[in-house]
Design goal:
Layout (H helix, E strand, L loop, with lengths): L6 H4 L2 H43 L15 E4 L8 E8 L2 E12 L4 E8 L5 E8 L51 H21 L2 H19 L2 H27 L1
Antiparallel strand pairs: 1-2, 2-3, 3-4, 4-5
């Protein structure tokens, strides 16, 4: 029987280097797997936070797509960063568009989100984050005041250009006692969000996207039992009328 003594090899530098390299490889692999798991967990939390943010202005019943991935990016000089438009679709038709944007306030950047119907009417506005003065300017938060709900139902059509200011500046919206800059910034942000939506809706991409949804909705309606029944009734009434006319003409 042949015996093999590995002890001499263990004492050689090459063996020790290979052993150390193997250990490092195993540790590196474990670190990579752990990092991947951590990154995935962070990404999942980010997605959950974004969906929670979206739900503040746009109920989930409004869409069956993924608005977080069906997005458009637009820029405006009034904003501190590009705005993101998130399209909500149901059965292939655009039901609403959420606009996430950032604008400079008194204490720093105010991050907000608003939802708009396809015809440009505000469904709701919410503040995502800010560092405005507590007790004065934080009334922009829905939890602190109902001021933010004053935008509901507003649009570029039912509020004039001058109206998109606080009352102190001749506009329609209230300012806060001792804090005018913050509500002024929010009003400007909401107005800018509506302008961005309109510019997209009137662009080639917007017209095509909205038209595709209308076509899809029309096709679905035409295929519905109610529409088919209505069409059959109209056809029957028309046939009966024509038959009666023919009989009268024949009798004469």
């Amino acid at each position: 029987m042949i015996s093999f003594d590995i002890q001499p090899y263990k004492e050689k530098p090459v063996y020790q280097a290979l052993l150390l390299g193997g250990a490092c490889a195993v540790v590196s692999l474990l670190l990579i797997l752990g990092n991947h798991t951590t990154l995935q967990s962070i990404e999942d939390h980010k997605t959950a936070d974004k969906l929670a943010m979206l739900a503040q202005v746009l109920p989930q019943s409004y869409y069956d797509n993924d608005p977080l991935t069906d997005t458009r990016t637009l820029q405006h000089q009034a904003l501190s960063a590009p705005a993101t438009l998130m399209l909500a679709e149901k059965n292939g038709a655009v039901t609403a568009v959420a606009v996430q944007l950032s604008i400079a306030g008194w204490g720093g950047i105010i991050n907000m989100i608003l939802a708009v119907t396809p015809d440009g009417q505000l469904m709701g506005v919410r503040i995502i984050s800010h560092i405005e003065t507590p007790g004065l300017a934080d009334k922009i938060e829905a939890e602190k005041s109902d001021w933010i709900t004053g935008f509901d139902g507003k649009s570029l059509d039912n509020v004039s250009e001058q109206g998109w200011h606080v009352k102190k500046d001749g506009g329609e919206f209230d300012q806060f006692t001792g804090a005018t800059i913050t509500p002024r910034a929010v009003v400007k942000g909401v107005h800018t969000g509506l302008l961005l939506y309109r510019s997209w809706a009137e662009s080639e991409d917007g017209l095509k996207t909205l038209a595709a949804g209308m076509t899809s909705a029309a096709d679905e309606q035409s295929a519905s039992p109610e529409h088919v029944e209505k069409h059959v009734q109209q056809h029957s009434q028309s046939s009966a009328k024509n038959t009666g006319s023919e009989a009268t003409e024949a009798a004469s």
